[in-house]
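Two entries, shown back to back:
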Amino acid sequence: MPSSIESLGLTKIYGTRTVVDHLHFRVPKGAFYGFLGPNGAGKSTTIKMLTGSLAPDEGNARLLGYDLKRSSLEIKRRIGVVPENLCLFENLSGPEYLRFIGRMYGLPGSVVDNRSQELLELLSLDSSSRKLVLEYSHGMRKKLALCAAVIHDPELLFLDEPFEGVDALATRTMRDLLSRLRNRGVTIFLTSHILEVMEKLCTHIGILCEGKLAKEGTQEEFLAEGGLDRVFLRIAGAHETTPKSLSWLGSE
């Protein structure tokens, strides 16, 4: 099966700490790949390297058949990204921001306006069209970032904790949108701390611990081992270094 993503030994080192350690994995075309791991495991750093916003210290990657180091501009034309820090232009309104993003991708003005209107209505942002982004709540910013990531109809979508700070109703709408995108053949690479989301959405899952891929498989393979939550807790627990209790509370 052709791959949308191939990580070829990606490595990132900060000082004396190796945050991502010679990471090898592949994401089949059309897969919904969940990238799971404890805080500080290296998930966001991996996405930054794959999307070209952070240069690896070692290794390389191929996205949609293109070499990341040689064809980064062509890759960026074909992918959508909801990054960890969102990177929104706060002095624009939601429609103005989407218009800017759409034109940056070379879409005709009429297409940008139609898609912007549909996206804003779908994610219940149309009633805030006169507000500047700086007035948006955290959840509203997440939804706007998703609108910007899909407005140009990407082949590959990266989502770094897209549901964090988003209410239950909006989460359901976003999940439905992502499912429809995947049904159209879009490959989705998702990081999330919400195991339920991973279980319901993802076809493939990789578990990252201390910058290394600890386990990878299909949803069915994880179910055969007792479910994603059991496997994740077993793997993450083996890397746990914090105390299990507070000394001043005593023992039960």
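entry 2 starts here
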Amino acid sequence: MPQPEDAVQWIIKKCLPRRFGIKRRVMHAWKFGTAKYVVVSFPKSGRTWLRATLTFYWAERYGLVDPPLLEYANLHYLDRRIPKIYFTHDEEPNRTPAELGRDKSRYRGKHVLFVSRDPRDVTVSLYFHRRNRDHDLEQPIYEFASGERGGLRTTVEFMNVWAAALRQIPNSLAISYEAMHAEPEETLARVLRFLGEEPDPVAIKVAFERSRFDRLQKLEREGAFASGRLTAGDTTDVDSYKVRRGKVGGFADYFDAEQQKQLNEIVRTGLSPDAARFAHPTP
């Protein structure tokens, strides 16, 4: 069933041309401008899991029946107590560290929630996403992870840039994927308070039960969310799932001892002290 939309959003969708990415750029600029809250993360840092837990939390809290996966204002249109939230990766991830933008001044008037994850796990998850879902990557996993473009060095520098930027954003909160695993209810409660909601403990428990990884994978197999954001590339291959494994420190399963040593060194020497404080990389 179509959801109600702001008139401006309808006009952008119906009237602007697709060529040269005009429609997409205008739509994203408008969403950014009209959302109070912005979630920033490097790809594969746990954003889908956060979307799912918030979706199921608000479904339980406000009695939404089979809502779509949280996307900008779709849940806001179902219940105005739910805020508009703009999700962004901020950068094109297939860049070298030097190519990443440093100026984040446009975010200073927003409430920014930054989601981080051990950059080694991010790199492995991104590799499988690009190989099995985007189909734009064929090189071996270690070659990608240790390379200069889009691999571990890029992820580390993205975290460094944002760790510095958050100091200049008055309303900001940094959470980690690892904290969502270790202290799920406490972490979600922090996020909800940041989003202007007094947490409901019962709804939080329900949200995490419904967003267990086995359940999210089942939803992927079934194509339960109409947006297509949570849809498996190949239902027989778990490495093609949007929700793949959810394992903290799982990067180590894909590299030999010497490769792990080299990747650990990239993190040790490259990650700034500020970024390391919220990245929680495992030993």
